[in-house]
Amino acid sequence: MYTLNFSATNKAALYQELLPQIRSIIADEPNLTANLANTAAVLKEAFGWLWIGFYLVDGSNNTLVLGPFQGPLACTRIPHGRGVCGQAWATGETIVVADVHAHPDHVACSSLSQSEIVVPLYDGNGNCIGVLDADAAQTAQFDETDAEYLGELARILQPLFDRQAV
Ligand code: SME
């Protein structure tokens, strides 16, 4: 059994506590679904965000399809370039949205969501294979610190996408 340990109240320090633990949790497990599910669980437990999860590229029809997540019922598919998730996939850039209601192409999965961050995920060949998406019930929840550490998390997860897709 793995017990999660964290106590920091400062955001950067909390990420610094959590990321090595995520690295350990996924180290010996080859199954992609299991590892993404536990990663979402760790982030949900530590930060208490409204929604945290993954959308993965379905190359057969150029959409993102819902992957492991924690939080309310979510949209199943998002087309390339649509919404914050589809834009992060299309541009390959992390997107921080302080107020989703002010964003011209936000896809609303929950009326409770007020702010959002989407981080693209890459395999070892530099292909974007999906995105990590976090939503908060407060405006301006996410900033450069989240972008930096969730970007580091994307690099920790990267070997998973080369190992196995289940
Ligand atoms: N808001 C996202 C859609 C995903 S849900 O928030 C879980 C978007 O605009 O792409």
TrEMBL record:
GO terms for molecular function: L-methionine-(R)-S-oxide reductase activity. SUPFAM superfamilies: GAF domain-like (SSF55781). InterPro entries: GAF, GAF-like_dom_sf, Phosphatase_reg/MetRdx. GO terms for cellular component: cytosol. Pfam families: GAF_2 (PF13185). Residues 31-165 form the GAF domain. Belongs to the free Met sulfoxide reductase family. This is GAF domain-containing protein. It comes from Neisseria animalis.
